[in-house]
Design a protein that fits this description.
The chain has 246 residues and is α/β, with parallel strands linked by helices. It has seven helices and 13 strands.
């Protein structure tokens, strides 16, 4: 599939649930006022960036019913459900069959291998590269492996499910909003994914107060994940019994 398209649309009456905040080289993706991920550059070095991931977008992705890109529908129709979740404003939409972005996860697919525990997905990450970042917003461990295999078979038969990405080109970062299972399926069959891109032309500003609040909330969420893991481990441990020596 070598089809490539672009269009600019105006969203009115958007719910504003999904928002992109930017300032300088910093970018943050927010869902229902909760931090999904925030990226920033360290000490003015474009090759030394940090990002923290907190809340995932699995619940929102489950709500979406995205048409196959082979349907030939206009971009605004293909992305209608996602755009309805975003704030009012202008958006540049795009369709491309391949991406020049470097994914932040290994591209090899091994269904028998864990793809990255939740604890390694959340938290603070350091990336030393000036290449654009493509950040997933659903942990790969939460994806249904059987669904990935089924979608891989459909792709081999000609289906082209979309991977939806919100772009912040000036900040060199994009966030996968939907299509994580599709991305894994494309990887499984060694095929470039079909990307539907959304670039907010009027992104929300990221003030110092906003960034501080988002970072505090993100690390609080990461702490909650660690505590939940610790409690689960405690509960899984069998109580130790001591035999009566008398």
């Amino acid at each position: 599939m070598d089809r490539s398209e672009s269009a600019t649309v105006l969203v009115r009456g958007g719910l504003g649930r999904l928002r992109l905040h930017v300032h300088g080289v910093d970018a943050a993706m927010v869902m229902d006022e909760l931090p999904v991920a925030m990226v920033w550059m360290r000490q003015g070095d474009a090759t030394d960036r940090w990002f923290v991931r907190a809340h995932d977008l699995g619940a929102i992705e489950d709500e979406l019913d995205l048409p196959d890109t082979q349907s030939g529908e206009p971009l605004a129709n293909l992305l209608r459900d996602v755009l309805a979740m975003m704030p009012d404003g202008r958006y540049r939409l795009g369709l491309q069959a391949s991406s020049d972005l470097d994914p932040d996860q290994p591209t090899a697919d091994d269904p028998s291998r864990s793809s990255g525990e939740l604890l390694t997905w959340t938290g603070l990450h350091r990336v030393r590269t000036d290449d654009p970042l493509l950040l997933g917003t659903v942990p790969r461990d939460l994806l249904d492996r059987a669904e990935i295999r089924s979608l891989s078979a459909r792709i081999n038969r000609g289906a082209r499910p979309p991977v939806v990405v919100v772009e912040a080109p000036e900040q060199g970062v994009s966030f996968i909003i939907a299509g994580h299972t599709a991305l894994e399926a494309y990887r499984r069959v060694a095929m470039e994914p079909v990307l539907l891109t959304i670039e907010p032309l009027d992104p929300d500003p990221l003030s110092e107060d906003d960034g501080t609040a988002l970072l505090n909330a993100a690390f609080a969420r990461c702490g909650d994940v660690v505590v939940a893991e610790w409690r689960a481990l405690r509960e899984s441990q069998a109580p130790v019994s001591v035999a009566d020596a008398g």
